[in-house]
Amino acid sequence: MKVATSFSGKPDSVKTADFVAIVSDPGSRDVIGNLLRDQGLSNAHLQLGTFEDTIRLLQQVERSPKQLIVDVSHLTMPLSDLTRLSQVCEPSIKVVAIGDKNDVGLFRNLLRIGVQDYLVKPLTVDLLRRSLASNEPVLQVRTGKVLSFIGARGGVGVTTIAVCLARHLSSETRRRIAYVDLNLNGGAAGAQLGISSNNGLTELLQLPRRPDASFIDRALVTKTDRLFLLSAELPYGTDPSPRAGAVGELVDALKQDFHYILLDVPRVAGRVTEEALDASNFVYLVSDRSVHAARECARLIRLTQELAGERVTSVLLNNPLEPVDGRVEPADFEQVFGRTIAHELPYAPKALALAENLGEPIGTARDGGFLSQVAALARDITGEGAPAATRWYARLTRRWG
């Protein structure tokens, strides 16, 4: 076991630690250390530090620990701060908060946002052992959010937008992202990310049961420590025949370990498309400024409304073709849909073509504001574009999204 008194850099003990505890007082540190020694837990990291030290540490590790003890003793807004913490650790992590206030209201609120338990100092070894060993479910399970992207017609830039958003969420906001390209006969996501498919998605969708973490880990293709791809490149004419319910079960499994799951959904109607939309929290319909695309968007909106459950459906208006007179105006789209366009992305052929062909991020030199619109979309998704008061409430209701 590694016991540190301060933190700087990225110590080896944290890179693969299953258990991490950062506490503000020597007494709590000593009790936790005794528990770790009693149970023989060597794959652990324990140190004195502040809540901000916890956030900085988790921002730098490749994978979150399985269990985390965080000290909220000196926090004036523990709910808001724990929501900040949730943005840098995976949804499946089990968090035990410790503090010096015997407050029932605080305890209940912490459970509502997904904290496993709240313990009041002074700690004891027996109290900690019971809390960490408990498998009782919390009132609300922390899970990732599912975003589906589907085009009103071919060539409107669905994959370009979704891949750019995945890069942004993983690198700029440090969320853990799973990109699932459901175009099973060969989608474009792998090429745009500069990585090759291993057909792992096909295997997962054909399993006779819900995939477990080990199956998923083998199927994922790693782009960075925060961005992973599931895809397939089956020969044309091959029918992958996913098992009924397989898409929804895969998404449910991914939600345990990723902040966001981005689904690149095929436009052709079928079981895969319907299950993907059904499993989504947010559906983004990507359209160009054509009459045909406007009509198809209206049909897709009706489809999402007919599905069971609740989801937010938005329209992204892209400009993949050179602007000329005669194209449908954004105001006309809004009139047809009865809703506003969430974002309009500009015409930027050179920057997008270069990024796609090289499998690299889009450059800012000639993007015409494309990246700024993607960043605005990301802020909408994470809630970081809202005023401070509403942002805290949005994050709380998203249950650590």
Automatic annotation (TrEMBL):
- Give the InterPro entries listed for this entry: AAA_dom, CheY-like_superfamily, P-loop_NTPase, ParA/MinD_ATPase, Sig_transdc_resp-reg_receiver
Q: What's a single GO BP term from this record?
A: negative regulation of cell division
Write out the entry's keywords from A to Z.
ATP-binding, Nucleotide-binding, Phosphoprotein
Pfam family name, one: AAA_31
Q: Which residues carry this modification: 4-aspartylphosphate?
A: 71
Instruction: Report the GO molecular function annotations.
Output: ATP binding; ATP hydrolysis activity
GO CC entries: cytoplasmic side of plasma membrane; cytosol
Cite the Response regulatory domain residue spans from the record.
18-136
Alphabetized PANTHER family for the sequence: SEPTUM SITE-DETERMINING PROTEIN MIND HOMOLOG, CHLOROPLASTIC (PTHR43384:SF6), SEPTUM SITE-DETERMINING PROTEIN MIND HOMOLOG, CHLOROPLASTIC-RELATED (PTHR43384)
Q: What is this protein called?
A: Fimbrial protein
Taxonomy of origin reads: Bacteria, Pseudomonadati, Pseudomonadota, Betaproteobacteria, Burkholderiales
